[in-house]
Amino acid sequence: MLKRMLLGLILTVTFLGCGGEQNRLHVFTWANYVGDEIRTGFESEFGVRVVVDVFASNEDLLAKLKSGASGYDVIMPSDYMVAIMVKENLLSPLDLSKIPNFNNISGQFLKRDFDPENRYSIPYTWGTAGIGYDSSVVNPPPDSLSALWDKRYSGKFSMLDDQRESIGAALKLLGYSVNSTDLRALAEAKAKLIEQKPLVKQYKNEADEILGSGDVVMAHCWSGDAFRAAARRSSIKYVIPKEGATQFIDTVCIPASAPNKAAAAQFINYLLRPKINAKVTEFTKYGTCVPAAREHLPDALRNHPGIYPPEEVLNKLESLRDLGEFTRNYDRAWTEVKAK
Amino acid sequence: MLSKLTQPFRTHQWLVLLFPALFWLIVFFLIPLAAIFVYSFAERGTYGGIQWHFTLKNYGQSLDPLYLGILWRSILTGIISTGACLLIGYPFAYYLARYRPRGRNLLLLLVVVPFWTNFLIRTYAWILILRTEGVLNAILGSVFPNAPTVELLNTPIAVLIGLIYGYLPFMILPLYASLEKFDRTLIDAAKDLGANRWKAFVNVTLPLSIPGIAAGSVLVFIPTVGAFITPDLLGGGKVDYIGNVIERQFKTARDWPFGSALSFLLMGIVLAATVIYFRALQGQEET
How confident is the model at residue B212, as a pLDDT? Predict the structure, then answer.
């Protein structure tokens, strides 16, 4: 009896194992990025099981792939990280004939300098780093980065704990590019941040937590976090400051080591269907790169100026670029701010 | 049977016994340590990888006053946390060691119970206690209605509270282990020889518990000097400790060689401090 049970168990495991590996797609992505609806929708339509695994930062993703983690079929790095991964030979070139829905993507997100020919990456969602604020407290509503230096809000606001974003905000306020490699501009930005430090309540990336709980009334934050905070506290609003802001584009890529490249291409093509793509925005509260998806969104999201800013705001956005060895100077400046 | 036990082991028998520990130490400690050591003499690649050019630049950069200042702050934090854990832990371990045996296990269990919950979650709990509208201010507000709120979260004091809370058990357990074995008739002997209770404690109990003090101090000092999660959560990212700087080198700055050099500098200083501390305690023990 026992023997037979054991045999049955072994056979089952073997079958599950074999059948599974062939028809399995491993997606490595950010937390709260691939909704269950999308996952199960793809599973039932294509008969492929989708296994989702999450990372916390682009650097974590890079470290995992570089240390030889394989078995992922689809990964979702942000813009500057795509450039790094291409140079490190970690990505597989895309066969666009397998991804016909590529044509749905707005030209605005294509041919960016992190991947000028879109050989390796498909733009997926995008967002900005601006100011989230509680409109019942912060009055008049802020329209400039200088609000983050306003003594009236001393001890009541947070800054991103990210050297490129926070130094970037100071650079923008001073009228420089967020990718400046001018040591003098960097020194000015550093001085500005040191001047600001006594006013800052805390440096934190997960601003949705503290804005939503009322711990801070204003936050330098990523757009999606402000919208998620607004779901908890309806008076939370988000503004892209008039000086401009950083824009990030998250992409979908296939790693060079992907075992199931065919299913990966299928999955990417599926994500780019307007109707499915709209679900991404509903779930993540980030704008997607497929304009036709907008029609499938509920009104509140479709006309949201924070998710879909008007043309003149879009023109003021700037993407962070990897600065190579100059990164060291940013890190030092940030350490000096933190050491004060 | 007994004679067999007291017989000295042969070399191969020793090897069998030591194999698990040796294997563990070599694979999970020595090899990674060697890798960090080698990295610390390499150069950062343009995209954050490692370039195999021998350089001492990383160590030169580590000795910059900026990083030494942060290192000093971290060491000071370690010293204060260790001292506070000792002051809080010693009386408790002493009490525990003299408690009646039946209740003692229960009390010991209470010391260990916090470990059943993840360290990160326990640190988050302190955020709920210390924040402006948190538990502490609610209690203070109900006792002293007119007092201003206490702003502790996102300050170095909050970091200290979190560290002392987190590492106190590591002080209590070794102290308890050394005090529990303590032969109490020695106190009676001291009293017979004319010592009062305080003198008996200082001259008999304290010196005999030095191994426990030493072990507890090392267990608290080393992790608190390099801590980076507690400063991040309770310090609100406003105060940088050496652990945070090192973490950043491996993540956002992607400067592994510099991070490795800083790690080695930190290890060297902590090792030196530990040796000096042990020497001083040994001196105490012998007098």
Answer: 94
